Amino acid sequence: MATIEGTSLQLFLTAAKSSDKESILTILQVLGDLLSVGTDRRIRYMISKGGSEALLQTLVDTARSASPDYDVLLPLFRLLAKVGLRDKKFGQKALELEALDVTLILARKNLSHSQNLLHCLWALRVFASSVTTGAMLGINGAMELLFKVITPYTQKRTRIIRAAAEVLAALLKSKSNSRRAVNRGYVASLLRLHLDWHHRDAADAYVRIRRALLLCLRHIANLRSGREAFLAARGMEILFSSAQNCLDDRRLEPVISVMIQILRQCYPRSPLPLVTSSSAYAFPVPGSVPPEPPCALTEEDFEDDADEEVDQDSDSEDTKEQDDDLETDVNKLSSKPGLDRPEEELRQYEAMCLELSCSLEELESKPGDNLNFEETQDAEHYHIPPVTSPKQHYLTKDQSSWGQEREDMVQTSLLSMVKMGRSTMHPASKRGPGMNAYQNMQSNGLGIDSSGREAPDSQASLKQDAWDIDVISCPVMSASLSSSARPTETAEVDKLLQTHPKHIPFHDPHLYMAKARRTRSVADFKRMAFPDLWGHRPPPCAQSMLERKCGVQRIKIFEDVRRLIEPSDVINKVVFSLDESVLWKLMCVTSQCLVWEYDLLVNTDVNSSQHQQWFYFRVSGTRAAVPYRFNIINCEKPNSQFNYGMQPTVYSVKEALLGRPTWIRMGYEICYYKNHYRQRTAATGGASEKCFYTLTFVVTFPHNEDACYLAYHYPYTYTALLTHLDTLERSVNPKQVYFRQDVLCQTLGGNSCPLVTITAMPESNSADHLEQFRQRPYQVITARVHPGESNASWVMKGALEFLVSSDPVARLLRENFIFKIIPMLNPDGVINGNHRCSLKGEDLNRQWLSPSARLQPTIYHAKGLLYYLSSVGRSPRVFCDFHGHSQKKNVFLYGCSIKETLWQAESSVGTSNLLEDIGYRTLPKILDKLAPAFTMSSCSFLVEKSRASTARVVVWREMGVSKSYTMESSYCGCNQGPYQGLPEMTKNGRSLPSGMGLQFGTSELEEMGAMFCLSLLILELKSVSCSRQLLTQATTLLNAVEEALDHHLQRFLPKTLSFFLFFRFFFQINK
């Protein structure tokens, strides 16, 4: 059949050169019939056989005859319009054969003949699709011709007007045509035409004409001169007013979307309202050069031609990965560099690995508590229960958790929490877009105080206590221990801690306060944030992702335009600033309700002019039930999960004092979009101008005169980590658990970087038991190299708490591994509120190749510790660096593979002779089965050139750790697996199926840390080197849990049994 069609097309094309009219008409009819059915394959075949040239030549020959025959020309134009859409070189062919001039001449001759003119315009539209031919048409007067055809509103000849407007829009894609249109005053003409058609087309019958006119303006606005002409013609005001009554009309979506794009393009670009783009704080780094004073910004600092803006109101968040960054040099991928320091330097790390040499007595006589007298005096000591207990019982010292009864395994074991066997999940809360999250918690009966009793009525409690929220919400860190010398704020907090005792696991406010006084910051902070001092308890129910309101982004863009054209609505009032260069705008818009709107500028990282994404601030004196809008106007990243269901976190001081000390996801009308602020080219190091983005959201606070904290994500401070580690150490039985805190090094800012060692104590002082203790393989985990990735700290918190718990799986892990953990690689960045950098203003996760002991001490010594373990033959089985990810959902791993990298890059280097341990995929596969939040589909094992100096790649290459990973946890949440199908709770308590997915809370992140630890055990069980003793212990544990759960199997048979089958699958390993 294909052969017959091809032969027929060839015959027709050959006959098309005939001068016989009847033959040509027959050929054109048959070609039209052939090309109107089937796929594009016929058209492409015709093009490959010279069909375009034959048709164009026929057009030229017919048009140049003494009396052009329109019986031939009209079907010829229709065929050309169809073929030209598929021929990429159609415009060039038309130019070479002089078909452009011929068609223009025919159009001019037929201005009063509708049918002939329409067909000419169809051909011109195809010709103009090529920028080159479009420019040539513009030179030959095509735009002048089109403006004769495009008239003010009329119900006559609308097909012709539409075609002419579409041809004009195609022509204006050419910059030369756009400049010509500006010079000839066509911008004002187009605005008048738009306004006339928009107002008089009451039935919206000619939307496509209106859209085509707007497309003309959009293409012109790509030029700076075009934008200037648009503004001079009051284009912003015209489009703003004409769009007011049609924003919610879905029929006008094609028109509104183009209006939005034009308004965004033409909004006058300006620098941020800052004197300098650098941070408000500076740290004197040894050897650094002081920055030059900032230059004044002018319009010339911004690029001439704008990129076309796209209305990002869609839900697409897919990003295409680039392959040109992949490393294809096999030598760089496979070679193992030598030490980057003298070998004798490695001896200093012996003191951090005492478990390799000390006796049992020496292990038991660990250095005393790191707390000094001040901390010991202030701290309240609580015994903490196992973290995995779902009921969160709080035990006293007499209710020791050591030696649990077998039946308690049902509550304490992690085995019931895996992906296929979860039965303790709380339903997700469902609330309307304006519903307060705290109100939702209370409406579901979830207001529970620290003792487990229902909290009293909030308003009554507030009246009784009459708290001074301004004093309480941001207390001063007193350096004095004398109660009489303490500030009023500290005394008030002490009183609250006595009357409102907190029993939050692994948190001690008194100890936190003591630790905070010893923390050094560049800004010399004197106050503490109340949530960090008071503590956080996870919300009693999961929170689903926010369903995005359609059109929220365009509404916000129109509000920005309103500010520009109606400046009287804006009050330029600074309500807070780090210095006089920071401007907040306070805007009141009066309609049915009062809306308070604030523009916020986030400080850049210390010693840097970029990396402004993380925020954490307090709002006091709030009004209940009043919507507050916050616009963070200098965000950097081109996209954000705030566009796809993520909400910021909020902590209410009054709610905390009422027994609900909880960070919750909150906010509505959230969107993230590019704004009109730019940074001059010189400030970006010669690169193109830097764009900024606005994160906007509305929050309704729960109480009057409250103080609320808002953050990018759940905060986790350096002081919280120190407090957490000390309380963890007190919670363990030192006879059973070896928990040691060391100082890896001192940071640039003078703070200590903790190093934690966790394993099980040897059973006795016998040589065999000590040998088994010392020969345990190492697992190395690090986190928080990027300060803004606080989710990594919550995952680390879950791992730490699980490893010291009484969970039988944790006990097995301790008895078979030694865990070396650096929970915070960038303490200075965390302390000073940085998003990504150290105090030197550099990304520490790009310094692993050649770190400096003076400038990057934490990286230098972390690498040194790994070098030391490798030098004594104790390289870790797994190295994993915990991170947070702002662009993707779920949790996933990045690993390293030579073969996968070369395959993906389509490298010519053969991979058949390359030897590679494929075990790097085992751990993520295990996690994909175990952890509800983990997804294998997002994992990648490619080695990029830009990641050559990261921890993952350097540990893989230089230490030879094949299972070297970065584990990324989403800031947003999970949209696959069990969490995606989580039921949502309605106001009346009924469950509805959910497809939105779950936003991560701290519980889910901590659970991920525990699941990661469990996966290390299963990984070992699957390995060839797994000891028979461990297999026996694991089998015994499984049997014990099965027996304890036997009476539960009838109720939870499908879920529980599926897990045990899975767990046995890993245990049944042929030895």
From TrEMBL:
PROSITE patterns on file: PEPTIDASE_M14
GO MF annotation, one: zinc ion binding
Location of the active site: 968 (proton donor/acceptor)
Renumbered residue ranges of the record's region Disordered: 285-343, 424-460
Subcellular location: Cytoplasm, Cytosol
All copies of domain Peptidase M14, residue ranges: 714-1020
Matches recorded under InterPro entries: ARM-like, ARM-type_fold, CBPC1/4, Cytosolic_carboxypeptidase, Pepdidase_M14_N, Peptidase_M14
Enzyme Commission code: 3.4.17.24
Keyword Hydrolase: yes
Catalytic function, reaction form: (L-glutamyl)(n+1)-gamma-L-glutamyl-L-glutamyl-[protein] + H2O = (L-glutamyl)(n)-gamma-L-glutamyl-L-glutamyl-[protein] + L-glutamate; C-terminal L-alpha-aminoacyl-L-glutamyl-L-glutamyl-[tubulin] + H2O = C-terminal L-alpha-aminoacyl-L-glutamyl-[tubulin] + L-glutamate
Keywords attached to this entry: Carboxypeptidase, Cytoplasm, Hydrolase, Metal-binding, Metalloprotease, Protease, Zinc
GO biological process assignments: proteolysis
Any one Gene Ontology cellular component term annotated for this protein: cytosol
Cofactor dependence: Zn(2+)
Family: Belongs to the peptidase M14 family.
Protein name: tubulin-glutamate carboxypeptidase
Originating organism: Neovison vison
